[in-house]
Amino acid sequence: MAADRGSCEGGGTKGPGPLRDGAKPAAQKPSPAGGPAAGSGGWIGPVFPPAGGAGSGRPSGPPEVAEVPRCLFGRKGPKPADSLVGSLERRRILLVVTGGVAAYKAAALARLLVKGGAVVKTAMTEAGTRFVTPLTFEAVTGGECRVSMWGRADAEIGHVAWAEWADLVVVAPATADFCAKMAAGMAGDFASAVVLASGAPKIVCPSMNTGMYENPATQTNLAVLALRPGIRVLESPSGQLACGDEGAGRMAEPGDIAFEAARAVCPKPFVGKKALVTSGATVEPWDDVRVLTNRSSGRMGAEIARAAWLMGAEVTLVSGPAAVAPGLPRGASFKHVYVNTCREMLDAVKKLAGEADLLVMNAAPADFRPAETVKGKVRKDSGTEGLPLALNPDILKTVNPLKKSGAVWMGFAAEPLHELWRAIGKLKDKNLDYIAVNDTSGPDDGFGGEMTTLTLVDKGGPVLVTERNSTKFMASWTILTEVAEKSKAASNPRPAPSEP
User: Fold this and answer.
1) With 0-12 CB in 10 A as exposed, 13-18 as middle and 19+ as buried, what is 256?
2) 14 located within any domain
3) How far apart are CA 234 and CA 3, in angstroms?
4) Facing residues of 317 across strands?
5) Does the N-terminal or the C-terminal CB of the chain have fewer CB atoms within 10 Å?
6) Do residues 254 and 364 both lie within one domain?
7) Tens digit of pLDDT for each residue in 38-93?
C-alpha cells in the first residue's frame, strides 16, 4: 500500500535506455538478443508518449523528444571486490605483515584487495612467518612475498624498488614492536626498511594485547604516527583477544581495512564536500503490531553512500529501519542515522539538507500512513472495516527551499523505460538536477537484489545508462562519476573563443 515518494529502489533487467543527441557513442557491443549493437546508433521508442495520447496529459503536437539514440554502455566504474571494497583497479598495494596472531586475518585482507583489482606484494617480518607462511600470501595475491633483504641474485635494491613501486602501504597487523620501529624511524629488516623508504600513503592497523595497547609508550608511538602526513592509524576495536582477555587491541576487520585502502587510492571528486543520502523504506504503524511499508531494501542507497564516501565525501546516510547496510564505513566521515516513519525521515533531512553539497534521495518513503494509530493490536473481530489513510509529506518538495547554491540534488524513480517522460516530469516538478531511473518493465524489478540497470537523466533528458545488470555499487559509482564530471565542467566552463 505504501509506494515510493521521491525515489524508489527498482532496477530492471532491460537493455539500453535512451540518450539525447550529442552524447558520446559507446564502443560496439553485440546485443545479447542478437539485435543492433549497443552504441551502434540504433533507435528505440520515444521518450515521451504520443502527443495528445490517452493519459499523456500533454497537448497535441510533436513530442518534446521524438526519438533518441541507443544509450551509452561502455562507461565503467572500478570493479569492487564485493560489497566491502571500492575501487582498487590496477592500484599497487604493499601489504606489510608483522608477527601478531592477527596475521591470519592479513591473508583474508590480501584476498579482498586482489578481488578489488589491486596488484599486491607482501613484505613480512621474520616473526610474521611464524604465524602464516610467505607461500600463503604468494598464493592468495599472485605477487611476490619477501622477508629478508639478503639472498637475492638480482641487482635490484629491493627495499628501495618496492618502496617506489607502492601506491599504498598497509601494515596489518601492526604489532607494538613494529609501531615503535615506525615511530623511531628504524629500518633493521626488509619490512621496516620498505616502510621507511616509501613516500606512499600508509594505513597502520594496530594489533596487540590490551595491556600493550594501552601502555603509554604504545599510545605515544601511535600518536606520533597519526600526526605524520600520509599516515592513517586505524582504531583498534575492543573484543576478545587471543590471550583470552577482553579489551582494546584487536586488529580492525579486513573489510574495514579494505575500505580504508580503497578510500586512500580512489579518485576524490567529492573531497571537502558533504553528501546526504537516504535509503530504504519507511514503516508507518497502524497498531503496535502492524505497519504499512514497501519492499525497498535500502541496498542501492547504501551503495551510493559507500561510493560517495570512497570519492572523498563526508557522508550522512539516513535509512529506514529495515535498510540493508552490510559493511558500511565507520568513523567521523561516515554517519548513519536510522528513522522509522516518513515524517521522521523528513525531520532528519530537514536538519541536514541545507548543508549538503550532494543530496541523493534514494529512499522509498511511504506515500500514505494510517490516519490513526491504534494502541495495542486490532483484532479481526473488532468490526473494523477498511483502513483510512492520510497523505504523507513529500520530502523533496518540502526541503527544496533549503537547497544551497551550487548543490547537486538527485532523486530516484522506478518507471518502465518507454514511460521515461514520467521520471523527467518528476525531475522538473521537484526541481532536481538529476534523476536516476530503475527500469521496471523487465521480469525483475530489482527490489532487494544486488544487480540493477540505471538511466541517469538531467533537465535536458537521458544522458547515461549503466552497464546492463551492474552490481548496485558499480551503478552507483558510474552515476556519481558522471555527476562529478558534469559538476566540474559546469564550475570550470571553457573560455569563449577570441575574436580573430
Assistant:
1) buried
2) no
3) 41
4) 277, 336
5) C
6) no
7) 333 322 333 333 334 443 333 333 333 333 223 333 333 333 344 444 468 889 99
| Residue 266 known to be catalytic | no
Identify whether residues 285 and 365 lie together within a single domain: yes
**Based on the domain organization, do 66 and 104 belong to the same domain?**
no
Do 481 and 351 lie in a common domain?
A: yes
Q: How many CB atoms lie within 10 A of CB 417?
A: 26
Per-residue b/e over 118-142, b at no fewer than 16 CB within 10 Å? Answer: bbbbbbbbebbbebbebebbeebbe
Residue in 8, 71, 205, 243 annotated catalytic = 243
CA distance 44 to 195: 56
Residue at grid coordinates 541523493:
360
Question: Under a CB-based contact definition with an 8 Å cutoff, are residues 470 and 447 in contact?
Answer: no
Q: Which amino acid is at 439?
A: D
Angle between helices 472-491 and 299-310 (to 10 degrees): 50
pTM for this prediction: 0.73
Q: How many CA atoms lie within 13 A of 491 on its CB side?
A: 11
User: Residue 164, Cβ neighbours under 10 Å: how many?
Assistant: 13
Same domain, 100 and 177: yes
Shared domain for 293 and 248, answered yes or no, is no
H/E stretch holding 103 reads helix 103-115
Q: Domain tally for the chain? A: 2
Domain that holds residue 108: 92-265
